[in-house]
């Protein structure tokens, strides 16, 4: 219960930062996706079920707070949460290289899934689309922020939940 509440609070906080502060901190060529980085970290730490649930709920919250079609972000983040959760306890994780690689790959996956969904359903959407300057900047910023956020989440969960898992 304490783990679920901590994850929920962390994801709500990241979505609020993304939706409110990004207006003020946004550069003309894009912003990092902090929520995605945290989702990847939590999914790898706790597995596919937690990753799917976290991805679905945060995606649904993002859908309600943004102009994206309802279900768009929740579908993408559910898939990402499931796939990254498959690596739970299967990898030896380097504190710098692993977060960069995992977040970079999931950012590319997010872009590809976004493009695929928009093409299949013929949806007009002005968000971050695959192979644009803003997507490239998002990929770079996500990769650079990943080691710091992974370490902060590790410390947070070690302190709050008194866990000692390697991440």
Describe the structure.
The structure is a single chain. The chain has about 170 residues and is an all-alpha fold. It has one domain (about 1-160): Arp2/3 complex 21 kDa subunit ARPC3 (Orthogonal Bundle). It is about 75% helix and about 0% strand. It has 6 helices and no strands. It has helices spanning about 1-25, 35-45, 50-65, 70-85, 95-120, 135-160. The relative contact order is 0.16.
Flag low-confidence runs: none
Largest sheet: none
How far is the first residue's CA from the last residue's CA? Answer: 21 Å
Query: What's the β-strand tally?
Result: 0
The whole-number mean of residue pLDDT values reads 86
Q: What is the number of helical segments per DSSP (H or I, 4+ residues)?
A: 6
Strand content range? under 5%
The helix fraction, in percent, is over 70%
* Overall geometric form: globular
Structural Rg: 15 Å
Key descriptive features of the protein:
167 residues; single chain; Arp2/3 complex 21 kDa subunit ARPC3; mainly alpha; 73% helix; 6 helices
Set out the fold topology.
Elements: H1 2-25, H2 34-46, H3 48-65, H4 72-85, H5 97-121, H6 133-160
Helix pairs in contact: 1-2, 1-3, 2-3, 2-4, 2-5, 2-6, 3-4, 4-5, 5-6
InterPro entries: Cell_shape_determining_MreD
Subcellular location: Cell membrane
Protein name: Rod shape-determining protein MreD
